[in-house]
Amino acid sequence: MTKTWTTMAAVVLAASLAGAQSQAPKPAAAPQPAGQAAAPAQQPQQAPPPAAKQPAVKSKEEGEALQKLFNDPSLTPDQKLTLAEEFLLRFPKSEFKTMVLRLEMQVYQQKNDFPNMLDFGEKVLKEEPEDAITLILLSTTIPERTGENDLDRDVKLGKAESYAKRAMAAIDKLPKMNPQISDADWDKVRNDARGQVWAGLGLVAMVRKQFTAAEEAFKKATSLQMRQDPVGYWRLGLALQGSKKYAEAREALKKSVAAGGVKVGGRDLSADELKRVEDFLSRQSGQTAAPPPQAPKP
């Protein structure tokens, strides 16, 4: 249920491809006609704030291959993977190598191929150890794929926490991808990314049955993200149930349903869980003894 394309990822891609399209050489200025006075020099303007250095396209063929890979909506996931591997073979020194590897990682996530997603995530980090998008995705996906009875549970959760710590550090010092983005809007983008990291840390705590820590993490996640995330509120509701805070869990689950719910296999997990909690609270108010609802695995 991890977001497959973060707000930050969209900003990075848009800025990078826009830069690629604008890298065609500009025509030289026309010479001044003889006897015509030169135009007065313009007053220097205040330089815009620095933006992150964007990768450069080195040939027309490379630019066309990138546009096809990232902008052709007709491509299937498998076709994207094939084109990505072909791109890396044709342009081994491309400055877009990290971006293409990251795309492959995300496609494997969409295909529900966790081993390959993890493998390509490591390839991205080998090229760029502080790639925030990859660190976010790994820190949130690993705990989703970790069960409380897995023999290597602690190793995997430790990795997720390490990626989360690195993601937070990378987000903190990430420069704006585009100088036209206002400081306030860029802060929103970065806070949204931080919210996703906190959501991953909440999952780590849930697998460990550390419900108080999970509650705190999910509350931070839902407060930072730009849009109300139904999955985040659903998971917060589960964490609150684990802490026996059923009234608060009901409110979180109501927000999840209102935001669109968590639809899986024709069911809305948020609506189902909300009904269980409301039934329990109704029986409790009538002094009818009943066990609390069992929170499903997040």
**Using only CA atoms, what is the Rg?**
24 Å
Overall average residue pLDDT: 85
The general outline is: elongated
The largest pleated sheet is described as:
2 strands, antiparallel
Strand order of the largest sheet: 1-2
State the share of residues found in helices, binned by percent: 55-70%
Order of helices and strands: HHHHHHHHHHHEEH
Secondary-structure class: mainly alpha
- Described by its quaternary structure, the protein is single chain
- Uncertain runs with pLDDT below 50, 5 residues or more? 13-49
User: Could you tell me the strand content as a percent range?
Assistant: under 5%
| Separation, N- and C-terminal Cα atoms | 9 Å
* SS summary, helix count: 12
In total, the number of strands is 2
Characterization of the model:
- With 298 residues, this protein is mostly helical.
- It is 62% helix and 1% strand.
- The chain has twelve helices and two strands.
- Strands 1-2 form a two-stranded antiparallel sheet.
Quickly list its features:
298 residues, two-stranded antiparallel sheet, elongated
Short overview:
This protein is mainly alpha-helical and 298 residues long.
Q: What layout of secondary structure does this protein have?
A:
Blueprint (H helix, E strand, L loop, with lengths): L6 H15 L38 H12 L5 H14 L6 H14 L3 H14 L4 H13 L8 H20 L10 H25 L3 H14 L5 H13 L3 H13 L4 E2 L2 E2 H17 L13
Helix pairs in contact: 2-3, 3-4, 4-5, 5-6, 6-7, 6-8, 7-8, 8-9, 9-10, 10-11, 11-12
